[in-house]
Amino acid sequence: MKKITISLEDFVYQFYQKVGESAGGLPVEQVAADALFKLAGELSMNALHKKGMQG
Q1: Which segments of 1-55 does DSSP mark as H helices, in order?
Q2: How many Cα atoms occupy the beta-carbon half-sphere of 17 within 13 Å?
Q3: Cα–Cα distance between 7 and 18 in angstroms, integer?
Q4: By C-alpha distance, which of 42, 41, 37, 39 is closest to 4?
Q5: Could you tell me which residues come within 8 angstroms of residue 18 by beta carbon, excluding any fewer than 6 positions away?
């Protein structure tokens, strides 16, 4: 597994922190990783959908 480092504005960090707390105490890093993974999946599905409509 690879590690990356990202910088977040304080308000973004606090948002992920609150989400993690309401999800049972997940750390900010896990919430952010899950959000990025979900976004990547949605972007992939949109790209495949667009490609299917063109071809």
Answers
A1: 10-22, 28-54
A2: 7
A3: 18
A4: 37
A5: none
Residue 54 banded pLDDT, cuts 50, 70, 90: confident
Q: pTM for the complete prediction? A: 0.80
- Those residues whose C-beta lies under 8 Å from the C-beta of residue 6, and which sit 6 or more positions away, are 32
Question: 41: which residues sit within 8 A by CB, 6+ positions away?
Answer: none
Q: What is the pLDDT of residue 14?
A: 98
- pLDDT at position 50 over 90: no
